[in-house]
Amino acid sequence: MSTTKQRPGWKPTKLRERRETHGLSLEAAGDQLRTVAERGGLRVAANFQTLWGHENGSMYPGPHYRRAYCLMYEATEPELGFRLPLPGEATGDLTLPLPAPLSPAATEEAANAITQGLDRVSDQTQGQDATAGDALKARVVSAWRGRAMSGSIGTTTLALVGGYAGSGKTEFARFLGDVSGWAFLDKDSLTRRLTERLLVSMDGDPHDRHTDLYLNEVRPLEYKCLMDTANDNIDCGISTILAAPFISELNDEAWLGRLTNRCKAKGVDVAVIWVRCDVDSMREYIEFRDAPRDAWKLAHWDEYAAGLNTETSPPGVHLTVDNRLGAAISIADQTREALRRVLP
Question: Per the record, which residues fall in region Disordered (predicted)?
Fold first, then answer.
């Protein structure tokens, strides 16, 4: 997209320098970028004109382009000149040297890669339960070992991944599902079509996500469906990851307490993750995904953004993932790419 907006740290020349260092023409870089993007499930056209626009500064790369560039060049966004680094954000070679054969040694290398990735996206400035957060990360790594080496099944876990619209919660939840093998349930995927039909049947807007009709009559049913489906999984001993905003729920300590107690009675652990993001990055992603349900947010952005708390996590959160400026999702992409090197 064309832009004249001043973006702190944006240095388009770094992208061109990285391409030239790799000895790539614009056409060759486009071919490689499309290959990387297809493997990572990213939407890019990567034609000559677009890449040239990114390198000469006439177009700022969109979120999928930035992720694809980082994967192709094995670098971070700050290293490619897209933005300034976050305070304390590690830079350097993101290549994770993993041996090719799937062996006990390779599995441990992969486990170490996942551990490093999770540690790097953990926001230590938030007041979460550090012990519970570390235990959750260890359990994700243990699940990877179990899948790779056909180990025994561990304790059943119900992981709630919450965050505002456009924060990256669904992407991060998918990443956890990729490496752990736990079931992944997204509220929108599970309920959106039913929600739209229900709103229409009540003479409402199918894309409404802000009026009392939705908030009082429909939203509670969405979460009931999500939690009922999760209960079916955990009753079978299947660890499950839920992706949903969970904004009201996680700010209601009584709600979380009831859920935790019900799960504890079944021998199931509850782990709560909050994906933290900045307002500008959330708006960029909401605009990028262009979903009808986001129309009201974009049309009333100042009003919507005023109600967001981007500084602190809700109470009861065990692990806060720092996805400001998309940093955590970039690391998740790199970790996935590293794991592919040891998969048969």
Answer: 1-21
